[in-house]
Amino acid sequence: MTRAIRYSRYGGPEVLALEDVPTPRPRAGQVRVAVHAAGVNPVDYKIREGRFGGSVDTPRGTGIDVAGTVDAVGPGVDAWRVGQAVFGKASSGSAATHALARADMIVAKPDWLSFEQAASLPVAAHTAYRTLRELDVRADETLLIHAVAGGVGLIAAQLATAWGARVIGTASERRHAFLRKIGVEPVAYGDGLDERLREAAPGGVDAVLDCSGRGELPVSIELAGGRDRVLTIAAADAAAHGVRFSDGKDAGPLPVAIEAVLDLMSRGELELPVAEVYPLERTADAQRSSKAGHVLGKIVLRVHGD
User: Which Pfam families does the annotation name (predicted)?
Assistant: First the structure.
């Protein structure tokens, strides 16, 4: 049997329950992962709240980021063997003791990376890499990132810096020391944000990545001199402002994004703090914290010992 966090209706974190369910069997092209850790992302609570429509006809799992060991492979899978340490994106909910994943949506976990660190990376790394490529961020350009202290923002900032860009980022003041350490020029949230951004970038910026979705699009368009290189992953009113919403449907290969991030991490040039770790049975609390925001880095569920 597998222990899994599931829900049978849309709603708040109270709809989540830890249940015993039959252990899933991998189908063709899939592997089954014995989960050591699972990452928590804002998209998890947004799906649970029903923001993307549809109905809950049967109980659903929650979570995408997964790290663990392969404990079964489906037909046609030759790239992986039982016992390999891997991480990536789960097809079934990753907040469980076992999860299924497509064989092409996992990568090998290097020995120097803990399972909790690995579980923090897939969605954030994939999204950061994809959005920077969509924005065509290049050396000697200035990139503005809203909510830069979150998982996507931190990885995007450090990738862009490694590629030679200048990065300005909005965040609460208590995060500014860390942001400066990784090469970001921080700008404080709150009243007067627009004016502070104009002061930080008097000549404007080349591109904007909005990971916040809290009303920053008008000043972003102003600073970027138009909408062409303004992109959001969080603003529900993107269409009203004529701004692209990046939903990840054409995300590109996960291994390419992970390779770029691991290369920098292995050289000490990129770090993604694991801000909070919760046991599996406290998944609801982890999603509450995720929705509250203001976490530096990522939230992770510990399922098995590392």
Answer: ADH_N (PF08240), ADH_zinc_N (PF00107)
Burial class (CB in 10 A: 0-12, 13-18, 19+), 114: middle
**pLDDT tens per residue, range 151-188:** 999 999 999 999 999 999 999 999 999 999 999 999 99
pTM: 0.96
Domain with CATH 3.90.180.10 in the chain: 2-109+273-302
User: Which residues, 6 or more positions from 248, have their beta carbon under 8 angstroms from its beta carbon?
Assistant: 126, 127, 130
* Structure confidence by residue, pLDDT tens digits, 57-108: 999 999 999 999 999 999 999 999 999 999 999 998 999 999 999 999 999 9
Give start-end residues of each CATH 3.40.50.720 domain in the chain: 125-245
Please check whether residue 260 is in contact with residue 283, taking contact to mean a CB–CB distance below 8 angstroms. Answer: no
Q: Looking at domain 2-109+273-302, what is its CATH homologous superfamily?
A: Medium-chain alcohol dehydrogenases, catalytic domain (3.90.180.10)
Residues 6 or more apart whose CB falls under 8 angstroms from that of 71 comprise: 32, 33, 34, 82, 83, 98
Please write the tens of the pLDDT for every residue from 142-153: 999 999 999 999
